[in-house]
Write a structure and sequence with these properties.
Strand order of the largest sheet: 18-21-16-15-24-27-26
Structural class: alpha+beta
Oligomer: single chain
Helix content: 25-40%
Shape: globular
Radius of gyration: 37 Å
Largest sheet: 7 strands, mixed
Number of helices: 39
Length: about 1300
């Protein structure tokens, strides 16, 4: 269709000078509406000319008005109401015409903005017209990303306010599809520089600090430097071979914002985007004849990058892009991504768009494509701004430009004509549309229909998935996760399940981000739902993540295979393409095909089983509740089960290998009790009809909380009364309590992102303690809680620790979040908070949190609001359910007479790393307090001490007791120094009652001497928890350089009088640790003296230990030579007392016959608990050849399962003959270990820390540093390497500072 010239009657009048000054942007739109729609004289019957007539009348009524004229507001509203009525009449005959409807909505919006009611203005004031032409903050805050149009006239740029020319235009585009924002005209560019036309070949040249086009007749103003290299910009001709004038856009660091126009002679368009370093270049071709169609050129200001919200654009500054109707004038401000020091730090652009890459909007005049929104054609695309060299691409999203080809630097085909015909689809001219690790937010999965068919003979699987998606932004791309899958087919269906395209869609892979991009030639429209269908296949994984194979051996020696899943945190993508992030919750309908000899299990119960072909059965599971992908699970096996039902009717089943079926009964009892307890405690029914627990023979971690199908290592689920110890029983109970707690904390309410994984794991860890204490009080789980918090203190007192809530983006970073901080520290601060708020308040807050965020995702703040009984204003229910935020500040919890801001308090525990040290001293009746950061690797005398303390302050809920009263006193410490009045009569003070608080206490100025005296004279004046806490703190302070080692040794001198096992074992653990470290250093005399001291002073305690199975964990020790001989003579049929069996085996493993006999028993035993006991004993051998053989077997995974290799390496490293052997093994097999267990996993972390934890001399430290340097790329990603180095440095300094003191102290005691 030819365009001869502007043909609308009244155009000259519309362009009159008196109006151009104020309303030119609107007039240009009207010209485009009329002139772009047809050729020839306007016909009154057409909608275009009706709109022109409305506009002409409006201009007549307002041409004499300015905002400064009296009565402006009244007259303006009168004209506006007439214009609104006129356009609405026209719009009725223009159904489906977005522009006309936008005009109607825009006028209505403007009338609202100007208070123009039907009956007249509600206010006669008008100054705000000049200053606030468009305020869309309230209207755009929930809007999705759309294109936005900004009006501008260059002739007016200098002499008039920028707000005045745009306010009417702003109102006209009130529709969210074409909305503008306030203040958008304050950043308009200066008059762009126009370069002359040229037809010579164009190159894009990289120079220092700039990228510029070089041509023979380039204006001197563009000369930014000497050309150093160059690549051609490809500007392929159209199908008709037309050629045209080519001009270039360029970007320069030194002169951002300059541009020249781009012309081409083809009815289609080619946009070439090239990234050179941090800079972008574009080349565009458009019809040359358009330049001849009009005489005038007028730029309209457009908003680049999609403009998701006016407020954000105003804050960040938009990137302008002028538009010329006859051609395409481009202007681009500096667009480069800054360099950031942290991998996890997002650029301002990424923060601006909620994690999405930049979205570029290019709008072209009606003359180019009149059928696309009548006056514009839009090319939308994702613009990758990652600072690396490479070609980029824009993708068409205009509904009538489905086939538009956007070529990169080396075009493989000519661009398609913009006719709506479908192009041949392939990946040759496509590049991956997404640059970030996290997925875009504009595609939301709603429902997965997943079919899987594993083949346990070929060890492979095939499958298909149909994902119902909700599109929240117009797009051609669907980006989701996939890792290691062979995608054989991808299609997109509409809501009626009709194919959008008959062709298989191209699938692009980004392996480094584990993502795939699927390109649709048809635009997926915002607000619509579609179905993405993908077929795929893969091998069953060899490791422990994704959909992997496992095997077990029967008593007859037969090896059987099963297939199981483990998806947390980022491995669901290894089993099926999915949106593998916790916030993308969806429903799942799963089907699994299998051979008849197997069963299939999944999250939900089977509703139907059908035979499909050749005897293959298909189990169809019920649709799941809404959940995250990492909770999906399926297992194909030949296991047997036991089943029971909870009081609320939930069916509970325990699955295990057929010959281990008898070991499942205790777990069934525990699971039923735990589900009943949690339903009552949380006041929320378990939402699924069944809960399966299954023991997987090969399992890397302890267990996994998949909703409705929790998976376990065999040692974490199976209990054999004949071989399992009381410790094993406690462990099984704790793990089941942990995983079932996750059904609420983690599954029902899930953290928004992995940075807050502690909301899952910290709670589940703490609920172990609460649930076991309530259901199995005889197991005395409170003793376990102390050890858990001691472990957290040890980790958190390194400088390489991290905040509980920490950034984590890539899979390696995410895996490292599953550590002591998330689990143990998270549980300990919850324990502190529970005692602080009281049990009832804590429990009701948790119930409120779970109710409010059920089937949703939550943040830290949501928990604090729930615990503090606060809510948002819209949720406010007069205090019955929660307080409003304003009320909450008034009704803050009262603690020790002080008002508390719970959020501020808990942020000091979750958003900063480390643990506080509270130093206590007496001054008359006052108790003086000081808080510092507790570090075991930086001493107060070190130059780095002051720097390491900067910025750390905690809100510490102190508790204390004195000899003057049995009352537990409370005090909230929120400053670096503080004081408490306790009175002159008090002789001793114990801070941190029962260690309910997460902090270390140091008693200065003779305070430790007072504690030592108290324990030696009347240790029962303190609870066993307080006594244990004092022992722990004293030895931690020795390591940190705050207390001499002799003071700590004096403190535990009372232990020969101790009657409670927990403080006794705590003290003995430190002594045995010293003994082991000294043994590694070949200090034979010191080792002998320390061993003699332990036996002499604790002989009475040792002699009290019994051989029976009665009593708690800590009451069983023995000397076992004769017992092992008896066991051997019985051919292993003698049942040893279970809690001394490990000691018996360890003694027996010292000779060749005993070691071989134990290995044989290990291979044939059906008890995982017994195998674990024997494996430990085998590592106690002093024969390095045997130790090396064990390590090699663990690496091979046949004699010893690979799942036990980490434990095996650490146990060998504990052996004084094996600690260097284990380290050499790790160095030699590092690549294999990483491949087997994945970088960042807890297994790799345990191996690194476990094999180096006993090193204590500078030569060992140097060796470890050199190895980490040799694997620098991997080591730099691991926090464990920093912990290992700090731990060795701590050991080195401990010996330098304490060795002689220890030697002298022992010499005195041995006399």
């Amino acid at each position: 269709m030819g365009r001869a010239g502007c043909c609308c009657r009244g155009a000259e009048r519309l362009a009159s000078p008196s109006l151009v000054r104020r309303f030119r942007p609107l007039l240009l739109l009207i010209i485009a509406l009329c002139c772009g729609a047809h050729i020839g004289q306007c016909q009154v019957a057409t909608p275009q000319c009706r709109i022109q007539k409305c506009t002409t009348d409006f201009v007549s009524l307002t041409s004499h008005l300015t905002p400064a004229v009296d009565g402006f507001h009244t007259e303006f509203c009168k004209a506006l109401r007439a214009y609104s009525a006129c356009t609405q009449r026209t719009a009725k005959s223009c159904r489906g015409n977005l522009v006309f409807h936008s005009a109607v909505l825009g006028i209505s919006d403007l009338m609202s903005q100007r208070n123009c009611s039907r009956d007249g203005p509600t206010s006669s004031t008008h100054p705000e017209v000049r200053h606030e032409p468009c305020n869309y903050h309230s209207r755009t805050q929930h809007a999705h990303t759309h294109s936005h149009v900004h009006a501008h006239t260059h002739s007016h740029a200098h002499s008039h306010s920028h707000s005045r020319p745009g306010y009417l235009f702003c109102g006209l585009f009130g529709d969210p599809h074409l909305r503008t924002f306030k203040d958008s005209f304050q950043t308009l560019p200066q008059q762009p520089i126009r370069s002359p036309s040229y037809s010579s070949p164009m190159r894009v040249v990289q120079t220092r600090g700039s990228t510029r086009p070089v041509t023979d007749n380039l204006p001197a103003a563009f000369d930014d430097g000497t050309v150093s290299s160059g690549d051609p910009i490809h500007t392929s001709a159209g199908a008709d071979g037309a050629s045209g004038k080519v001009r270039a856009l360029w970007i320069s660091e030194r002169s951002p914002g300059r541009h020249v126009e781009l012309h081409a002679g083809y009815i289609g368009v080619t946009v070439i985007v090239r990234q050179l370093g941090r800079y972008l270049t574009l080349a565009v071709r458009i019809p040359e004849e358009l330049a001849q169609a009009y005489d005038a050129t007028q730029d309209l200001q457009l908003c680049l990058n999609g403009c998701p919200s006016g407020e954000r654009i105003d804050q960040a500054g938009h990137l302008p892009l002028p538009l010329s109707p006859p051609a395409l004038g481009l202007q681009l401000q500096q667009l480069r991504r800054p360099t950031y020091s942290s991998q996890t730090q997002a650029s301002p652009y990424e923060q601006l768009y909620d994690g999405q890459s930049l979205v570029t909007t290019v709008m072209m005049a009606t003359a180019l494509w009149p059928r696309c929104f009548l006056f514009t054609a839009m090319l939308w695309g994702v613009l990758d701004t990652t600072p690396s060299d490479g070609d980029l691409q824009l993708t068409s999203r205009c509904p009538l430009l489905k086939s538009l080809t956007i070529q990169t630097s080396k075009p493989t085909q000519s661009p398609q004509q913009a006719t709506g015909e479908q192009s041949s689809l392939g990946t040759g001219n496509l590049s991956f549309p997404w640059s970030r690790l996290r997925l875009p937010r504009y595609i939301i999965p709603l429902h997965y229909r997943l079919l899987l068919h594993p083949n346990l003979t070929s060890l492979s699987f095939t499958g298909s998935v149909q994902i119902e998606i909700d599109v929240q932004n117009n797009t051609n791309w669907i980006v989701l996760h996939s890792k290691g899958l062979d995608i054989t087919k991808a299609t997109i269906l509409n809501q009626d399940l009709g194919l959008l395209s008959d062709q298989v869609l191209p699938v692009l892979h980004n392996p480094s981000h584990e993502q795939i991009g699927i390109f649709s030639p048809w635009v997926l429209s915002s607000g619509q739902k579609y179905f993405l269908y993908i077929e795929f296949g893969a091998k069953l994984a060899e490791g422990f993540s994704g959909f992997y194979k496992s095997t077990y051996r029967t008593s007859t020696g037969e090896t059987r295979t099963l297939a199981s899943t483990h998806f947390e945190p980022t491995s669901a993508r290894m089993a099926f393409p999915c949106f593998d992030e916790p916030s993308f919750k969806a429903n799942f309908s799963i089907r699994v095909r299998r051979s008849p000899e197997y069963i299939a299990l999944s999250n939900m119960p089977v509703v139907k089983t059908v035979e499909v072909n050749d005897g293959i059965l298909e189990d169809r599971f019920d649709t799941s509740v809404k959940m995250s992908t990492y909770l999906v699970a399926f297992v194909i096996c030949d296991f047997k089960s036991v089943t029971a039902t909870t009081s609320s009717g939930v069916q509970v089943s325990i699955y295990a290998a057929p010959e281990k079926w008898q070991q499942t009964h205790y777990a069934l009892e525990v699971a039923v009790k735990m589900l009943d307890f949690y339903e009552e405690y949380f006041n929320i029914r378990y939402p699924l009809p069944k809960q399966d627990l299954i023991a997987i023979p090969d399992f890397q971690s302890g267990a996994m909380e998949n909703w409705g199908l929790t998976t376990y290592r065999e040692t974490s689920l199976l209990f054999d009364p004949l071989t399992s110890s009381i410790s094993d029983k406690l462990w099984v109970t704790l793990v089941i309590g942990h995983e079932l707690a996750h059904q609420w904390f983690g599954n029902l309410v899930t953290m928004e992102w992995w940075n807050d994984i502690w909301l899952n794991e910290g709670f589940a860890r703490y609920m172990e303690y609460i649930s076991v204490q309530a259901t199995y009080p005889d197991l005395k789980v409170e003793e376990y809680l102390l050890d858990m918090c001691f472990a957290a203190v040890g980790y958190d007192s390194f400088n390489s620790s991290r905040p509980i809530s920490s950034p984590a983006e890539n899979p390696t970073q995410i895996k490292q979040m599953f550590d002591t901080v998330s689990y143990d520290k998270g549980a300990c601060i919850l324990h502190m908070l529970r005692h602080f708020l009281t049990e009832d308040v804590f429990q009701s807050g948790l119930v409120r949190y779970l109710h409010k965020y059920s089937y949703r995702n939550a943040h830290n703040q949501d928990l604090w609001d729930s615990l503090a009984n606060t809510c948002s204003e819209e949720d406010f229910t007069s205090g019955k359910y929660c307080y409003s935020s304003s009320q909450a500040s008034k009704n803050a919890y009262l603690f020790a007479g002080e008002h508390l801001n719970l959020t501020a308090m808990m942020h000091t525990w979750t958003l900063q790393k480390g643990i506080p040290l509270v130093t206590v001293s007496r001054k008359g009746p006052l108790l003086l307090l000081r808080q510092d950061r507790f570090l075991r690797t930086v001493m107060p005398s070190d130059p780095l001490w002051s720097a390491s303390q900067q910025g750390f302050l905690w809100h510490i809920p102190l508790t204390y007791k004195t000899d003057a009263s049995s009352t537990v006193h409370r005090h909230l410490m929120t400053t670096h120094t503080d004081s408490i009045h306790i009175g002159e009569e008090v002789s001793w003070v114990k801070i941190n009652d029962d260690m309910t608080g997460y902090y270390v206490v140091h008693y200065e100025d003779g305070g430790w001497d007072e504690m030592t005296k108290l324990l030696s004279e009347n240790h029962t004046a303190l609870s066993y928890k307080d006594r244990t806490h004092l022992i722990h703190n004293a030895f931690q302070l020795v390591t940190a350089g705050h207390l001499p080692v002799n003071k700590a040794l004096d403190l535990i001198g009372y232990l020969r009088l101790e009657t409670h096992n927990v403080p006794l074992l705590q003290g003995l653990a430190y002594l045995s640790g010293f003994y082991q470290m000294i043994a590694f250093r070949n200090e034979s005399d010191l080792k002998s003296n320390l061993g003699t001291y332990i036996l002499r002073y604790f002989r009475s305690v040792i002699d009290q230990q019994t051989w029976s199975d009665m009593g708690s964990v800590s009451e069983r020790r023995l000397e076992a030579h004769q017992s092992f001989k008896d066991w051997l003579q019985s051919n292993g049929t003698l049942n040893l007392p279970t809690d001394v069996a490990t000691t018996v085996y360890s003694v027996g493993a010292q000779d060749d016959h005993g070691w071989a006999s134990l290995l044989h028993t290990y291979n044939i035993s059906l008890s995982a608990a017994q195998q674990s006991q024997i494996l430990f004993a085998l590592t106690c051998s002093k024969d390095t050849n045997k130790l090396l053989r064990l390590l090699q077997w663990g690496l091979e995974g046949k004699v010893i399962r690979s799942q036990d290799l980490s434990y095996l390496i650490r146990m060998v490293a504990r052996n004084s003959e094996g600690h260097h052997l284990a380290w050499k093994f790790v160095k030699k097999n590092w690549d294999t270990l990483v491949q087997k267990f994945q970088l960042g996993s807890s297994t790799i972390r345990n191996i690194i820390i476990g094999t180096t934890s006993h090193f204590s001399n500078p030569e060992e430290l140097t060796d470890v540093k050199l190895f980490f340097e040799s694997i620098k790329e991997e080591a730099s990603q691991l926090r464990a390497t920093q912990i290992a180095l700090e731990n060795i440095q701590k050991n080195v300094r401990w010996f330098q500072r304490n060795l002689e003191t220890l030697r002298n102290w022992l010499n005195k005691r041995m006399k």
